């Protein structure tokens, strides 16, 4: 299973809220070389995989950079201006970076170079760095371990190139896992046609490639069916069978006519390396360079691919449609039924293509949501062994496009969009277990129309009631006074013991890009919110009574309040609602 009253009186303002502490939260451990840790899947036998973001000490290669070039000089001037705005003296020069190894020792210089390279992410003449890595959680809160997919040792500095991103998506009951990763970049010299001076370019062999990883960490690459110009493949879910494994994902099957014309017209290798031209086309066509199909691979116990089945897609292309069509399988159950997303033709305009939630069964692609109800985008993210599919879909709600989570019963053909946190809240289902419990995350910030905070939820089919998972956690730390430090923001997976796995935020000492603790201009340590991977275990808890934070402030300070401050209490209630 796989792939989110206004106070009417002073007494009302001082009321309390009862919360059930029926889950125990445990951190899964962290990868010390990164800031944020995520869990992505868990097997019924307890194997845990995840991702990290914000890798520390990303290596900076300066050997090819001309520090007299106007681009880097202008970037440094902009950095100086930014430092002045915060009354901070800049702590490095370009000469320090070029000659004194400042990018590896000075966090400000390192951050500057990361920003400089990031701003040139589409320019092949500058180093490419990835910020995502795959990890395994060994359990017992031990440090997580990195699982390298396709990265290789660098020829320019110690360690791997760190030019890749690696995604860990699903794990089988015996610990065999799947994901996908990008190819490492290689620094090459290229002389454009008609020129005499060489240029440095960073090139790679493929954009992304599916991988199956044994429980001992051996990586097996799954090639795409069409691998010209590298092709594309990704593995999203895995199920253990008696004979081996079933893996689902997507694979490139060809290049559409329009994109082939673009390649023929532009990628002749005269002005730039051919692979650079291919990457630019890939980016400019919104990942539609290749025709991509949902696929099911069968593997034997030695992880050899023994069969490949295209699962289809929901469009019959017309003769004059020379652009790419895409489908993807994100989840599969023990019955071999897969779920995911596919291009679907809009039912009001045949020239418009939608990407909608589907499931794949018996050679057919079956739609899940009704376009007549204005649903126009979405994904199926998980399916349990009772053939219940979950996911989310997009439609206009209260003047904005909002996602809503759903579950679909294949046996009855019914699709249900449960009531979530509030009418215009976007909500996302990430997983469902065989007990019919759905987990995911939804927006809880009612009054913010822009970026909204998300919190984790659980929903039991048949109960018609969504539960904020944070309401199932303790109110306070063990001292009984300090507010609980975790906020559960995403529930990513749930097993059949109803244990929930996901991510929570907590406040810690702030760290810079080299991993050092940040001290502010006032000499005090700064703090920030980070993401940690967590496990929630059901416990026989009792009801905790959690007072509102504003109420606590009032109770602590009431002895020193002037009498007229009581008149302001209704405004406190209003502020709480607005926040």
What does this structure look like?
The chain is built from nine helices and 32 strands. It has 579 residues and is mostly beta strands. Among the domains are: 5-15 and 545-579, no CATH class; 61-124, no CATH class. The strands form nine sheets. A four-stranded antiparallel β-sheet has the order 2-31-30-29, with no helix packed on it. It has a four-stranded antiparallel β-sheet with strand order 3-4-5-6, with no helix packed on it. Strand 13 (233-240) and strand 14 form a beta hairpin. The longest helix has 16 residues, at 70-85. 39% of the residues are buried.
What labels describe this entry?
single chain; 579 residues; mainly beta; four-stranded antiparallel sheet; 32 strands; globular; disordered N terminus
Structural class: mainly beta
Average pLDDT metric: 89
Our estimate of the beta-strand percent is 35-45%
Total DSSP helices: 9
Q: Which shape, going by the Cα principal axes?
A: globular
Poorly predicted runs are: 2-20, 550-579
Kindly report how far apart the N and C termini lie. 36 Å
**What's the main sheet like?**
4 strands, antiparallel
Number of strands: 32
What radius of gyration results from the CA coordinates? 26 Å
Helix content: 10-25%
Strand order of the largest sheet: 2-31-30-29
């Amino acid at each position: 299973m796989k792939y989110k009253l206004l106070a009417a009186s002073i007494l009302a303002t001082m009321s309390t809220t009862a919360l059930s502490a029926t889950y125990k939260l445990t951190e899964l451990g962290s990868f010390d070389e990164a800031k944020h840790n995520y869990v992505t899947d868990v097997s019924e036998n307890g194997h845990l995989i995840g991702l990290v973001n914000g890798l520390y000490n990303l290596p900076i290669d300066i050997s090819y950079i001309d520090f007299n070039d106007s681009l880097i000089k202008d970037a440094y001037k902009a950095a100086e201006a930014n430092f002045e705005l915060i009354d901070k003296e800049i702590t490095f020069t370009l000469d320090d970076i070029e000659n004194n190894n400042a990018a590896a020792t000075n966090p400000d210089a390192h951050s500057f170079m990361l920003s400089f390279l990031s701003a040139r992410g589409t320019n092949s003449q500058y180093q490419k760095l990835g910020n995502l890595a795959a990890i395994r959680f060994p359990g017992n809160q031990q440090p997580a371990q990195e699982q390298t997919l396709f990265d290789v040792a660098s020829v320019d500095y110690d360690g791997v190139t760190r030019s890749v991103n690696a995604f860990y998506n699903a794990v089988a009951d015996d610990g065999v896992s799947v994901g996908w990763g990008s190819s490492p970049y290689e620094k090459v010299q290229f002389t454009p046609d008609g020129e005499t001076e060489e240029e440095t370019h960073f090139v790679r062999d493929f954009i992304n490639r599916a991988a199956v990883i044994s429980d001992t960490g051996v990586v097996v690459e799954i090639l795409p069916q069409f691998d010209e110009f590298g092709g594309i493949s990704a593995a999203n879910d895995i199920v253990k069978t008696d004979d081996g494994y079933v893996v689902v994902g997507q694979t490139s099957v060809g290049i559409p006519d329009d994109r082939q014309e673009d390649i023929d017209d532009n990628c002749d290798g005269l002005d730039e390396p051919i692979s650079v031209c291919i990457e630019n086309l890939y980016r400019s066509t919104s990942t539609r360079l290749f025709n991509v199909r949902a696929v099911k691979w069968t593997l034997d116990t030695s992880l050899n691919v023994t069969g490949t089945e295209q699962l289809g897609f929901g469009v019959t292309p017309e003769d004059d449609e020379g652009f790419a069509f895409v489908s993807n399988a994100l989840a599969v159950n023990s019955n071999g039924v897969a779920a995911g997303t596919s291009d679907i033709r809009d039912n009001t305009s045949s020239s418009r293509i939608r990407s909608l939630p589907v499931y794949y069964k018996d050679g057919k692609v079956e739609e899940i949501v009704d376009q007549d109800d204005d649903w126009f985008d979405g994904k199926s993210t998980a399916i349990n062994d009772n053939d219940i599919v979950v996911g989310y879909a997009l439609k206009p709600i209260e003047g904005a496009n909002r996602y809503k989570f759903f579950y679909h019963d294949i046996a009855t053909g019914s699709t249900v969009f449960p009531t979530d946190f509030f009418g215009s809240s976007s909500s996302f289902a990430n997983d469902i277990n065989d007990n019919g419990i759905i987990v995911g995350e939804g927006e809880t910030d009612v009054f913010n129309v822009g970026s909204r905070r998300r919190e984790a939820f659980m929903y039991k089919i048949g109960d018609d009631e969504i539960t904020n998972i944070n309401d199932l956690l303790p109110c306070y730390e063990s001292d009984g006074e300090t507010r609980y430090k975790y906020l559960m923001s995403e529930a990513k997976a749930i097993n059949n013991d109803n244990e929930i796995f996901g991510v929570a935020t907590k406040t810690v000492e702030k760290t810079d890009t080299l991993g050092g603790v940040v001290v502010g201009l006032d000499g005090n340590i700064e703090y920030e919110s980070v993401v940690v991977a967590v496990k929630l275990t059901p416990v026989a808890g009792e009801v905790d009574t959690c007072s509102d934070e504003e109420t606590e402030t009032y109770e602590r300070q009431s002895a020193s309040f002037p009498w007229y401050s009581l008149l302001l209490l209704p405004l406190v209630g209003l502020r709480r609602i607005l926040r």
